[in-house]
Amino acid sequence: MTTRPRLRDPSTFVTGIVAVALFAVLAAVFLGAGFEGAVGFAGDANVTATIGYALMGLMDVATENTVASESFLAAFIIVALLLDAALEGSVLLASRDNEGGDGE
């Protein structure tokens, strides 16, 4: 025979309250958010050239069709670091020890 779940268990009571509070905060933020029209780049802005100029520190010689690049540059570097960590992790997992293993 199965037993009913204990609702007054102190170990799950606190986490349940935290989960309900987090749901309430996220629901309030979602319902209170305003969704205006999409904002794009003015004209024919060249995002790739802007990132290149920002990486090389040449924003003062950039042409007039560039955009503010701080957020692009930060996202570019963060993605590069994550991909580097994933590559190093895959190499670490793929390497084999000479001792043990399946005999190959």
Word description of this protein:
There is one protein chain. This protein is an all-alpha fold. It has a domain at 45-94. The protein has 3 helices and no strands. It has helices at residues 10-32, 47-56, 70-94. Helix 2 crosses helix 3. The model has no long low-confidence stretch (mean pLDDT 78).
Low-confidence stretches: none
What characteristic shape results from the CA principal axes? flat
Q: Quick one: biggest sheet?
A: none
Q: How many DSSP helices?
A: 3
User: What is the CA-based Rg, rounded?
Assistant: 26 Å
SS class: mainly alpha
**How far from one another are the termini?**
52 Å
Q: Roughly what is the average pLDDT, rounded to an integer?
A: 78
Strand content: under 5%
SSE arrangement, N to C: HHH
The helix content, as a percent range, equals: 55-70%
Beta strands, count: 0
EC number: 1.6.5.-
GO molecular function: oxidoreductase activity
Protein name: NADH dehydrogenase-like complex subunit J2
Enzyme class: oxidoreductase
Key traits:
0% strand, NADH dehydrogenase-like complex subunit J2, 104 residues, mainly alpha, oxidoreductase activity, single chain
Q: How is this fold's topology laid out?
A:
Elements: H1 10-32, H2 47-56, H3 70-94
Enzyme class: oxidoreductase
GO molecular function, one term: oxidoreductase activity
EC number: 1.6.5.-
